[in-house]
Amino acid sequence: MTRLQTTLGQFSFDSCVMNASGVHCYDRTELDDLRASKATTFVTKSATLNPREGNPTPRYKAVPLGSINSMGLPNLGIDYYLDYLETVEVGESSPFLSVTGLSREETHTLLRKIQSSSYNGLVELNLSCPNLIGKPQLGYDTEGVNDLLTEVFAYFDQPLGVKLPPYFDLTHFDQIAEVLNQFPLTFVNTVNSIGNALYIEDETVAIKPKNGFGGLGGSYIKPTALANVHAFYQRLKPSIAIIGTGGVTSGRDVFEHILCGARLVQVGTALQEEGPAIFDRLEAELRSIMAEKGYECLDDFRGKLHYL
Ligand code: HRO
Q1: H or E element, residue 255
Q2: Is the overall model pTM greater than 0.85, yes or no?
Q3: 53, 55, 69, 75: which to mutate for ligand 1, most atoms within 8 A of CB?
Q4: Domain 6-300: CATH superfamily, name plus number
């Protein structure tokens, strides 16, 4: 029997697939669905200090090879997700609470609130929302990431990771990895959507905010996601685990993320389109690939990508 168990820092998980933040994780009902599914754990929608309505609709569109979104961070506010997480036992395997501040001060307020709450599980700091009008993605500002994490780790001692935007140049991987390696991060989650893409139907954009510019997800972005997972696998110190996100629609895609070095694999667009039953299918497809290749557990092939 193949085993899909994995670990991340001090936590261990029965399987390796879960939702990506932003998909099927807005409220209690959706989070309960994930907990009832074969997803091994879940991450919440990125929370801000106050609830937000998000951008005008239509703001998400499924397209033939993926999706484009400009949701604009609709969420129910940090207190809602902290209340929800009080009902969830953080044991050997933890949920992920995703947060993002609209300013540096707000990020600190959020993290201090978490620190003084009863939630003691994993926290994902989203440094890469591409859809906030007038606000750049902090993940592209290496110095800004360094300054923020320096301030954060002066007081924050829960297991913390960062959600990064995709990078496209090897020197940019070198620069951001050098910064990240200076901190006691539990994980790096790569990638968020490819920011500010434009999808056109006939002569018109597909979504309303920002005249159609939005984050690209789904099959379009798998090669970029795999490159980012593997580039960080090659550069990060081994104590920083990698979560692979981007372009996962099949067990084969999960297999490829793990081959590139991922310890957990998240599903966004395909979960939005197929619903939480997708986790059952992904696990079954992954198990059958592993069985065919004679792999008994994820360690048998994690990070062991072959080069020519
Ligand atoms: O809410 C969004 O518009 C959004 C967020 Cl926060 C994010 O991190 N990534 C994305 O594609 N959309």
Answers
A1: helix 251-259
A2: yes
A3: 69
A4: Aldolase class I (3.20.20.70)
